[in-house]
Design goal:
The chain is an alpha/beta fold. The protein has a single domain (3-146), classed as Mannitol-specific EII, Chain A. 40% of the residues lie in helices and 22% in strands. The chain has helices at 20-35, 39-52, 110-122, 125-132, 137-146, and strands at residues 12-15, 56-58, 61-62, 65-68, 75-85, 95-104. A hairpin with a 2-residue loop joins strand 2 and strand 3 (61-62). The chain is globular. Mean pLDDT is 92; it is low at 149-153.
Length: 153
């Protein structure tokens, strides 16, 4: 699976958020408009997933995700935060790269492939540094879409 299978250019942006909760609420709000669901239908599963353990995977990266009833395909947003925020990440480092993923409730193991692809890309130091160097949405998308594991090594 490739990042471009999960995200479109208009789903990539820079964002300012003061807290993890504010960030997740904003990402849910933006998602709900596009996928045609009520905010609460997305917010509740996202917050329930975070309650199980932070999706802050370390090195300034978070991949908040949840299975969502009522969608039939993956939906993602990528946000490069203007300032890092506390996300209760596994390494206790603040987060500034966020890949938000909604997973169809009926998806089987494809979500594991998607999460692995995202984590591999964003935890690669060269790719992460390139993403942190810009706040231009089209540049961010191009970096996400074209940086391969080999290129980013």
């Amino acid at each position: 699976m490739e990042i471009v299978e999960l995200i479109k250019p208009e789903q990539v942006f820079c964002l300012r958020a003061g807290t993890k909760t504010q960030l997740l609420q904003e990402l849910v709000r933006r998602s709900a408009k596009v996928v045609g669901l009520e905010v609460q239908a997305i917010l509740d599963p996202i917050m329930a997933r975070e309650a199980l353990g932070s999706t802050g995977i370390g090195e300034g990266v978070a991949v908040p995700h949840a299975r969502i009833a009522g969608i039939d395909h993956f939906f993602a947003l990528f946000a490069r935060l203007e300032r890092p925020i506390n996300f209760d990440a596994v390494d206790a480092q603040p987060v500034d790269l966020v890949f938000f993923l909604l997973i169809p409730a009926k998806a089987h193991e494809e979500h594991l492939t998607a999460l692995a692809c995202i984590a591999r890309r964003l935890r690669n130091q060269k790719a992460a540094n390139q993403l942190r160097a810009t706040c231009e949405p089209s540049t961010l998308y191009n970096l996400l879409a074209t940086t391969t594991d080999v290129d980013a090594a």
